[in-house]
TrEMBL record:
<feature type="domain" description="AB hydrolase-1">
    <location>
        <begin position="21"/>
        <end position="253"/>
    </location>
</feature>
<protein>
    <submittedName>
        <fullName>Alpha/beta hydrolase</fullName>
    </submittedName>
</protein>
<dbReference type="InterPro" id="IPR000073">
    <property type="entry name" value="AB_hydrolase_1"/>
</dbReference>
<dbReference type="Pfam" id="PF00561">
    <property type="entry name" value="Abhydrolase_1"/>
</dbReference>
<keyword id="KW-0378">Hydrolase</keyword>
<dbReference type="InterPro" id="IPR029058">
    <property type="entry name" value="AB_hydrolase_fold"/>
</dbReference>
<dbReference type="GO" id="GO:0016787">
    <property type="term" value="F:hydrolase activity"/>
</dbReference>
<dbReference type="InterPro" id="IPR000639">
    <property type="entry name" value="Epox_hydrolase-like"/>
</dbReference>
Length: 267
């Protein structure tokens, strides 16, 4: 990513690829735009694809302050203004789906179409690991480098159904290593709060744009039952389960994911 946007909370790195109608990709936690690399080329054949790293993630700035879902939707709205996009297609995974929903429902930002991939959208959510980090963030920040890398590596590999290739593991881990990345990893977990979805859950019935919900059948982070519950709350939404895929559908089954996306996006 060669472009930088400077916000009041810190700088954000982004990239643009392809030509055609605008489409924005929003990643989740603890991921980055790196995890879209398999589908950006296919989408770029038909769309101008905008992708970025959330504040506190990837190659974006990792400030000491707020990087929670409470600021990500404000940042996304600012980015859309920076890019001069009035009604883009938006695809969000995990916290990226939450950010897309909050930006639309709280700021009234319109999208042409919305795709949600295993989003954090229906409470209760948060793993025992999240709870533990919330209680002992300072202790986790002090882990030796090797122990931290082993912990994060084990954690992220649980998001895939297929064995995680070594280059994928390294690409995911890289932003979370070192004196800046290590505290940033625990910071974003410690700031995760269910209230950010609780305040928008009652508004899902007001969504009117064409919406597609995709879910990895073997998702052990957010079970497919959450997807069915979300589907029942968004009028007219389509719902599709992707087999042999965990939470990281874009890593487990990128070709299948692209095959589900394009007919919906091009219709």
């Amino acid at each position: 990513m060669r472009c930088t946007y400077s916000s009041s909370n810190g700088f954000v790195r982004y990239g643009v690829s392809g030509s055609g109608p605008p489409l924005v990709l929003i990643h989740g936690t603890p991921w980055s735009s790196f995890n879209w690399r398999h589908i950006i080329p296919g989408l770029s054949e038909f769309f101008t694809v905008y992708y970025y790293d959330l504040l506190g993630y990837g190659k974006s700035e990792k400030p000491e302050g707020d990087v929670s879902l409470g600021v990500q939707h404000d940042l996304f709205k600012a980015l859309l203004n920076e890019w001069q996009l009035e009604e883009p297609i938006v695809i969000g995974h995990d916290f990226g789906g939450t950010t897309a929903l909050r930006t639309h429902l709280l700021h009234g930002v319109p999208y042409k179409k919305l795709v949600l991939i295993d989003p954090v959208a229906i409470g209760p959510w948060g793993s025992p690991f999240f709870t533990h980090v919330n209680q002992y963030e300072a202790a986790f920040r002090g882990l030796p480098d090797a122990m931290h890398e082993a912990l994060v590596s084990t954690y992220v590999q649980g998001a895939m159904y297929q064995p995680m290739p070594e280059d994928t593991r390294r690409g995911i881990l890289h932003p979370w290593l070192g004196s800046t990345g290590r505290p940033a990893f625990y910071r974003q977990i410690a700031q995760a709060r269910q209230r950010y979805t609780d305040e928008i859950e009652p508004l899902y019935a007001s969504i009117r744009m064409p919406t597609l919900i995709l879910w990895g059948r073997e998702d052990e982070w957010i079970p497919v039952e959450k997807g069915r519950a979300l589907h029942s709350r968004i009028p007219g939404a389509s719902f599709c389960i992707i087999p042999d895929a965990g939470h990281l559908v874009q890593e487990d089954q990128p070709a299948v994911l692209l095959g589900k996306l394009l007919p919906f996006l091009l219709a």
